[in-house]
Amino acid sequence: MRRPAPPSLPDTQAPPPPPPPSLPVWLSFLSPPPPPPSGSGPEVSAGAMRLSAARAVSHGRVFRRLGLGPESRINLLRNLLTGLVRHERIETTWARADELQGYAERIIDYGKLGDTNEKAMRMADFWLTEKDLIPKLFQTLAPRFRDQQGNYTLLQRIPNRSNLDRAKMAVIEYRGNALPPLPLPRKDVNGTLLNQLLWGYRQDLADAKSSPGGPPGP
Questions:
Q1: Sign of the torsion angle spanned by Cα atoms 138, 24, 149, 59
Q2: Total of domains in the chain
Q3: How far apart are CA 166 and CA 187, in angstroms?
């Protein structure tokens, strides 16, 4: 006697895997933006962009805390970046300016994608706390560097702060702004070995002349 065939199971498909959790805007900002559309400037390979991101991490730039907690650090960088986009030149401590430089370069890369790019708009909306600056990013700054890949900013040391902490200070600016150029820093030649030896010789000679016996004879 033939055994009845088992009932066929309904044709079901495995449910699709859940989408990966989206990164916060400030964290996804650290990943390289997609290349700009063709015709909008020089294209960069994905490998080169990954390399530049890895180099930034290896140099410790991404993890500089600036003496603040994560949220306070991000808020500080947002305010600094907003001020830089508005004035195109700001003065701050060297540590903050050095950390800001990577973010100031990255926001221009996103600006090159255009205001029709969803991710570029999200980045601009998050990082620029003053929303009237969003058109400036896409319509003024990004076109200025259309034919340039990187090196949008200039970082320059200035004299240390004169209060008790003597903090190292710097000026960071976007290249091509309408502000008068900063004077080039003077090279300190007094600290060279030769000048130090000459200074010591002059001091010894002056001390010898002022002594009661006068300078030694030949």
A1: positive
A2: 1
A3: 20
Residue 110 lies in a domain: yes
Are the C-beta atoms of 160 and 170 separated by less than 8 Å? no
For tokens 């859940």, what's the residue?
Answer: 18
Closest CA to 44 of 107, 115, 123, 112: 112
pTM score:
0.62
CA-only gyration radius of the chain, Å: 29
Q: What is the pLDDT of residues 153-196, one digit of tens each?
A: 999 998 887 776 788 999 999 999 999 998 876 665 565 666 66
Q: Is the pLDDT of residue 147 over 60?
A: yes
Q: Residue 143: what residue type?
A: P
Contact 145, 112 (CB under 8 A): yes
Cβ-contact 96, 19 below 8 angstroms? no
pLDDT at position 3: 66
User: What is the span of the domain harbouring residue 85?
Assistant: 66-174
C-alpha 139: how far from chain center = 21
Tokens of 161: 């702060």
Instruction: Tell me the pLDDT tens digit for each residue of 4-43.
Output: 666 655 555 556 666 655 556 655 665 666 665 555 444 4
At 67, the amino acid letter reads G
Is residue 119 in a domain? yes
Q: What's the confidence (pLDDT) of residue 22?
A: 58
Given a contact cutoff of 8 angstroms between Cβ atoms, the answer to whether 144 and 176 are in contact is: yes
Residue 143 in any domain: the answer is yes
CATH number at residue 112: 3.90.1030.10
